Structures are given as C-alpha cells and as structure tokens.
Amino acid sequence: MSLVALVGNPNVGKSTLFNALTGLKQHTGNWPGKTVDLAVGQYTFKGKTYELVDLPGTYSLQGISAEEEITGEFVRSETADGVLVVCDATCLERSLILALQVISYVPRVLVAVNLIDEAQAMGLTIDIDKLAAGLGVPVVEICGKDKKGLDQLQEKLRLLAEGYLFYDPPERIGEGWEIAYAEELCSCVCFREKTEATLTEKLDRILLHSLWAYPCLLGLLLLILWLTIEGANYPSQVLQWGFSAFGRGLKSLLEGAPPWCLGLVIDGLYEPVTRVISVMLPPMAIFFPLFTLLEDFGYLPRVAYLLDEGFRRCGGCGKQALTMSMGFGCNAVGVTGCRIMESPRERLIGILTNALVPCNGRFPALILLMGICVGDLSPILQAVGLTILVSLSVLITLLMSRFLHRRVGRGERSIFIMELPPYRKPKVGQVLLRSFLDRCLTILGRAVAVAAPMGLLLWVLQELPIERGNLLSGLAELLEVPGAVLGMGGTMLLAFILGSPANELVLPIALMILAGGGWSTAESTATGQMLSDFGLTVGQCICTMTFMLFHWPCTTTLWTIYKETKRISQTLLAWFLPTAVGVVLCLIINLILHL
Amino acid sequence: MEIFLSELDRGKEGVLLAPMGDKVFVGRLWQFGLIEGTKIRCIGIAPMGSPMLFSVRGMSLALRKEDCKEIPVIVV
After folding, report:
1. Mode of pairing for the β-strands spanning B2-4 and B72-75
2. A211 near B CB under 8 A
3. What is the CB-side half-sphere exposure of residue A364 using CA atoms within 13 A?
4. Which end of chain A, N or C, is less packed with Cβ atoms under 10 Å?
5. By the CB < 8 Å criterion, does B24 face chain A?
6. Rounded to an integer, what distance in angstroms lies between the CA atom of residue A95 and that of residue A77?
7. What is A454-509 written as a DSSP string?
8. What per-residue confidence (pLDDT) applies to A26?
C-alpha cells in the first residue's frame, strides 16, 4: 500500500479532493486553517490501494503555527511514498511558493492545479505544459468539486508511487528563491482575459462596507436563528406526539410487569431519551447545517476581519471570532480550534472564553425558556431575543478577554494576517444533507450514551426514600438556598449540576425532578408547558437563561481543555470563569427582579 | 515616494521594501510571500479602521493597521 501526502495552502480545495478520492465524509469549512486534525483515507485504483494523508493547510513548509509545523515535518521526514501538492488556479503564484519548497525537499512530487472551473469563470487560463517544465515535476488540471480530471490524477499518482515520474527541479539560488521564481513562472504561464469585477468583489462591497457590514452580520445571525426557531417548531411537536403515542403503547405492553420495571424503563430510560431527542434534535439539526453552509460559503473570515479591531483592543485577535463561531456548534470543537492561533496567550484566552458562547446543546433550552417568558409571541421576536442573548455573550467574551489579557499567558507579539478567500458556492444539497444526517446521528448517539445513563441515575435517586421524599428531591431541597439566591430555585440548580456531562440534558433533568416520577401515569405534554405548569416563574426563567449562557463548560469541553492545555490549573480556571460570570449576573438580575 | 503600508490609499498600488520589525513578524510576512519587491494594492479598510485589506499575488490579505506601520512601500 502506498502512502501519499496531500499538501497545499489553506482553502485550495484539498479536503474536497480528499473526499472525492476516498469517499470519506469529512467536513470542509471555507476559511484558512480549518482542517486541524489529520484525516487519513484510502482508495483503490487498478488493483492497488493508496493511503492519503490530508495534512493541515500551510503557506510555507517553515510553518509557525502548530498545525503548519506538522505539515512541514511530515514532508521533510519523507515518510510518504509521494507528495501531492494541490494548487489554486485562481491564485497560482502563492500556491507555487509552497509547491517549489516541497519540490526542493522531496523527489516524488505531483502537482494538481485545482479550481480550474473558478479560474475559467475569472477568465484565467494556465499553460500546464509550460508550468510542468518550469517546476520540473508533472502537473495535472483538476476540479475536485466536480470530480474532473481525477482519473488522470489517479493514474499519475500510481506512476508517482512507483517512481516513474520525471523530476527535474529548478536550481535553488539563495534563500527565498522560491518567491521570486514563483512570481516569474506565474507571469509566464497564466493569462487573464476579463477584468470585470468578480462575484467576490461585488459581494464584499456590501458585506465589508463601512456602513452595511455590521448590520449584515447581525442580520445573517438573526436570519439563521429565526430559521432555526421557525423550522424546529413543527418537527418538535410531531416528534413529541409520536413519542408519547409510542410511550402509551409501551406502557400498556408493560401492564403486568412489577412497578419498578415500569419505572425503570419509562421514567429511567424512555422519557429522558425521547425528551432529549424531541426537544433538542429539530433545532440542532437545522442550525448546524445552516451554519455549515455559511462556513463553506466563505463568510467566516470576513467576520474575523470585521471583528479583529474589537478583539485587538481586548488583547485578543480576530481569529477568536472564528473559534467563537465554532463554539456555537460545540464548545469542545471551539477549544480545539484555538490551535489556529499562533500566540500562546491568545490561544489560552480563546480556550478560557469559549464556553461563554452558547453551544448547540444550549440553544434549544434558551429557545424554550424564551418561549415561556415571552409567551405566544412570534418566532421572529424569539429570534430577535436569541440574537440579543448571543450578542450579550460576545460582549462578555470581549470583556473577559480584556480582563484576562494582562493576567494570563506569556507576553508575545500577536500577528494577525488573514487571507480572505473568494466566496465559493457550496454544494447546498450535499452540505445540508450531510450535516443534517451527521447531526441526527450525533444527537441520537449522545441521547443514548448520556441521557439514558443519566435518566437511570435520576430514577434510582428518586426511588431511594429518605426522610421527606426521595434522595433526588432531597438534593434539590439542599440546594434551595443557593438556588433562591441565584434566582432559579434548587431544582434548576441541581439540574445544572447533574447536566454537566451535556448541556442538552439540563431542562429534561429539571423536568424529571419536578415530575417526581409521576410520568408513568401522567400525560406527556410540551416541555415548556410542563415546566411552567410545575411552577417555573418568569423571573426564574430569566435567571435560568442567564445561567444557561454563563456556567461551567460541559465535561466533554473540560476534558478537551485539559488535553489542549495539559494543565489542571488552567482547566480549573476554565471551569471557574464562566461560572463566576453566571453567578454574578444571576445575583444582579435576581436583585433587580425583587426590587 | 516612500511611505508606510498603513498610509497606502485605497486603490493605490505599491511595491514593498524590506519590512522592519522582529524576526517573528518578518518571518510571518515572508510566509505569505510579502518580501521586498512584491507588488501590493490596497483594496479596502475595515469599518473600525483596522485591518486593512490588500491584494497581493492574486489573494486578498488582511493586515492590521499597526503592523502596516512597520512595512515601507514605494508608491507606484
């Protein structure tokens, strides 16, 4: 089996090509530096198996960030049987710099010029033969997205692995030779016809406009949140209806069984798992694909560009906007994403503040709680409310970053250089479907892996009688005083504590505690309705929402933070900071509500 | 006329001279191919005044204004 390393600048369509060749389902986001973990895949061609390693995108083999170093090291180690350098036809000169570096290090190189469809749309043509002669290695033209030229590519890779391809590298004259050489070579092989403004330039005139940029940013956020709320409404109800119908069937099936058996299956397993699924699945399965579309489109680097100055004044950098966006999906992913920051201090600040941004698991809870507060108001107003909450999160993140920046980490110069890639039309159908299925599987998996054991634990706690009631209600009572101080009540506080493994568990746990094991006989209704029926006041709702935004990171995120920082002290700090914010804010709000 | 990159007006093109600053900074610029003799054109400035957006080697690059104050250019 031959090993081929896939190398290229960020955002040249390397991962798209990787997927096209290996068929592996891998998420590609359209902003520089996204692929942080190494992806390995296989494909077979003419009876032989080839292993592809998708190395992190880098601008140069002498990378500065951690992930760029990985690529440089891997190539120089000559572990692979061959290196495939993927170049961007729309931006050939820059791609050639890396290609020339690779060619000077290893003898088995194949260059693939990708995105030829976009180059054509821009009026660019490239003389491939001349390019191959100038580079001294074979070159193929491909379009990874449409799978054009892949047969020729695979054939050349086969020859490459067996050592049959030509190799006649240009002479290295002094340091930095590749930059001047790339410039000259590109001017010889690239020909541009049209000079009218590209779609990217036209769009950026609005999206980066001094007046319209920020309203567009807010508007897009609002749009995504509104689509999530509006779209999740009906499916949630359908799922709830379906599950309760099935639940009734299940209960009648277990008619003759002993009461503990009924309790275990229904209260311990069925109710928690199905409640998590029916409440959490629809919003998460809509939000994530929408956000992925925005990512693939290429808008996120613009967000970093627009917010960099704000972050800079707080000691951070625009890349923090990117890790924050990742945190919207999952805080653990956001924490890992902080690797794109070069400065250790900025990386630490990014990690410590990521949990201040609500993750997918918290969105449905926030939407639900807001529904209780504003009552039967339209989804658009709920979306507005959620946008305000998210903006509050961003504001607190900035403030916290400013607070931390002189107090943690080593003082190093932070350098912000970011490429704004051209807008790419994502394959909408494919992205939506892939992301949707991915989310469904993830949530179903988590529901079983986390909600089921938690449900069982709670059921056991409820079954253990103590002086007044059971162990579970006893714990809630124990927390009544701190809960009242924070304005949310002991039950909710207990729910937050028990919901530490996953944020989507918090409200279902609260419901379980309030229901007190009476579900086996009660009729299931909408979660929001049930919570207010059980006495959750609007005031408690507001405090719960506040704490939902600002509380300790979930255990998955904490574990990820530990793996990234390798320091217990920093992990504890990551636990403490958002909690402190939440406690302080809840105290203040509770005070205001009681005036 | 020699100015700093931070003073390059929108739409104007310049040629880079050797950048000043510490090794890490220069090294990072080098990685993006920003060395002496590179043609660079200013295509925009962010609403808050920083970063500035440039077209260089066919790509759009964003650089902070304060960093641009350390990069000398000759206006074309």
Report:
1. antiparallel
2. yes
3. 30
4. C
5. yes
6. 21
7. HHHHHHHHHHSEETTEEHHHHHHHHTHHHHHHHTSHHHHHHHHHHTTT-GGGHHHH
8. 46
How confident is the model over A75-114, as pLDDT tens digits? 888 888 899 999 999 888 888 989 999 998 888 999 999 9
How close does chain B come to A73, measured CA to CA in Å? 16
Inform me whether the C-beta atom of residue B37 falls under 8 Å from chain A C-beta atoms: yes
Cβ distance of A64 and B32 shorter than 8 Å: no
Could you tell me where the DSSP H helices lie in A5-47? 14-22
Per the structure block, which two tokens stand in for A440? 């469904």
> Which residue in A180, A19, A193 sits closest to A119, CA to CA?
A193
Q: Please tell me the distance in Å from A305's CA to the nearest CA on chain B.
A: 7
Contacts of A204 in chain B (CB under 8 A): 44
Q: What is the dihedral of CA A493, A495, A501, A504, to 10 degrees?
A: -120
- pLDDT digits 0-9 by tens, A216-274: 999 998 898 888 888 888 888 898 889 888 888 888 888 777 877 877 887 778 887 88
- A85/A98 Cα distance (integer angstroms): 8
3-state secondary structure A263-292: HHHHHHHHHHHHHHHHHHHHHHHHHHHHHH
Give the number of beta-carbon pairs within 8 Å between A and B.
Answer: 108
A318 Cβ under 8 Å from any chain B Cβ: yes
Cα–Cα distance for residue pair A86/A103, rounded to 1 Å: 13
Q: Which residue of A has its CA nearest to B22?
A: A413
pLDDT at A178 over 50: yes
Write out residues 170-189 of A within 8 Å (CB-CB) of B: 176, 179-180, 182-183
A416 Cβ neighbours under 8 A, 6+ residues apart: A308, A312, A317, A318, A319, B51, B62, B63, B64, B67
* Distance between CA atoms of residues A113 and A329, nearest Å: 33
Helix (H) and strand (E) counts for chain A? Answer: 27, 11
User: What pLDDT is recorded for position A24?
Assistant: 55
Do A417 and B61 count as a contact with CB atoms less than 8 A apart? yes
B61:A418 CB<8 A: yes
Element (H, E) at A87: strand A82-88
Average of pLDDT values for A108-126?
A: 87
Residue B52 near chain A (CB below 8 Å): no
Distance CA A418, CA A32 (A): 8
DSSP assignment string, A537-558: -HHHHHHHHHHHHSSPPPHHHH
Nearest to A179 among B27, B35, B61 (CB): B35
Q: Choose the most confident range, by mean pLDDT, from A34-48, A157-171, A190-204.
A: A157-171
Check residues A212 and A516 and name the one with the higher pLDDT.
A212
Report ipTM (2 d.p.): 0.94
Between chains, do A93 and B60 touch, taking CB under 8 Å as contact?
Answer: no
Helix or strand (DSSP H, E) at A159: helix A150-161
pLDDT at A36: 46
Comparing A584 with A380, which gets the higher pLDDT? A584
Region A144-164 average pLDDT: 85
Q: Is A156 on the interface with B (CB under 8 A)?
A: no
Which of A69, A420, A423 should be substituted to probe chain B, the one whose Cβ sees the most B Cβ atoms within 10 Å?
Answer: A420
Using an 8 Å CB-CB cutoff, list chain B residues near A60: 30-31
Tell whether A69 is within 8 A of chain B (Cβ): no
Res A32 pLDDT > 60: no
